[in-house]
Amino acid sequence: MNDTPKRDRRLEAQQRAAELRRQEQRRARRRRLLIGGGVAVAALAVAGIVTAVVLNGASSATVAGSGATPSATSSAAADWAAPADVEAAVRTAGLQMLTAEGTALHIHQHLTVTVDGRPVAVPAGIGIDEAQQRISPIHTHDESGIIHVESPEVRTFTLGQVFDEWGQKLGTGQVGTYRNGVDGQTVTVFVDGKTYTGDPRTIALASHEDIDIVVAKTGTTVSPPAAFSWPAGY
């Protein structure tokens, strides 16, 4: 089998990830001026990031035998949008908004959600209230799927809190509106490439953790995406 196309895609993904990191560094400098400095919030949504991350080492899950071709966005993207009331969502997660990103704990995870072979964009701005210039210890800056945990205290944060801030349901056999056995769908969760059979809400967020949630037709064999290639500096 010729692995050249796969290597080319991985190289392209790594190059785009490096560009993503440079963009993030520029945004971080602007945020330091913004949070606590009264400067207008820098734009957080980055056009085209979804495609770059989806191509990152085949970061959408392989659905064996499905014949589905992943696209850059879900056909029901609006259903996965970040909630308008950021602070209410953060309170639901049991957290409080901050005036600046915390520094006692600073780690990152990568999250993917795939439905019938099509990746869902994890939206930018989860946990960030631009109008009030406030930010949650758990947040996203773009649509890369990278979750930022930047807390003023060292504590355990969970995947359930991420989904509460996102405004999406998560539980055993459920993600968003998809549930095991409903409409012939099955929800599978992978953590660092291994099937997770417990309640996904309880998954503790760890540094450089890969969390992948795959919705597929019941009976379809699913496998986890390739490990995420982290940009330098994360």
Question: What order do the helices and strands come in, and which of them pair?
Answer:
Layout: H1 4-34, H2 49-54, E1 62-64, H3 86-92, E2 105-115, E3 118-120, E4 128-129, E5 134-135, E6 138-139, E7 146-151, H4 159-166, E8 170-171, E9 174-175, E10 178-179, E11 185-191, E12 194-196, E13 209-217, E14 221-223
Parallel strand pairs: 2-13
Antiparallel strand pairs: 1-14, 2-3, 2-7, 4-5, 6-7, 8-9, 9-10, 11-12, 11-13
Helix pairs in contact: 3-4
Task: Describe this structure in a few short sentences.
22% of the residues lie in helices and 24% in strands.
Q: Please, could you describe this protein's structure?
A:
The chain has one domain (4-223). It has helices spanning 4-34, 49-54, 86-92, 159-166; strands at 62-64, 105-115, 118-120, 128-129, 134-135, 138-139, 146-151, 170-171, 174-175, 178-179, 185-191, 194-196, 209-217, 221-223. A hairpin with a 2-residue loop joins strand 11 (185-191) and strand 12. It has 234 residues and is of the alpha+beta class. Strands 2, 3, 6, 7, 11, 12 and 13 form a seven-stranded mixed β-sheet that branches. It has four helices and 14 strands. The model is unreliable at 33-62 and 64-75 (pLDDT under 50).
